[in-house]
Write a structure and sequence with these properties.
Elements: E1 2-6, H1 18-27, E2 33-38, E3 44-47, E4 50-54
Parallel strand pairs: 1-2, 2-4
Antiparallel strand pairs: 3-4
């Protein structure tokens, strides 16, 4: 299971992962990753399986 949330904000904070953390707690080992897509420009790590990614990551190629 992968959780995805979309935020219109240009910044992302730890609180923005509250729902994904709750999902991870409920699913246990079945939870593979959680992503917050946001209007910013940086990919950020917010925990072992939690990442914030720019919405533009959906249509652009990054460094592989």
């Amino acid at each position: 299971m992968v959780g995805i949330e979309v935020k219109a904000a240009e910044t992302v904070r730890g609180d923005d992962f509250r729902g994904l953390r709750h999902l991870a707690d409920r699913l246990g080992a079945r939870f593979r990753a959680g992503f917050v897509l946001y209007a910013g420009e940086q990919a950020l790590v917010f925990g072992e399986k939690l990442r914030a990614l720019p919405i533009a990551a959906l249509w652009t190629l990054g460094d592989a």
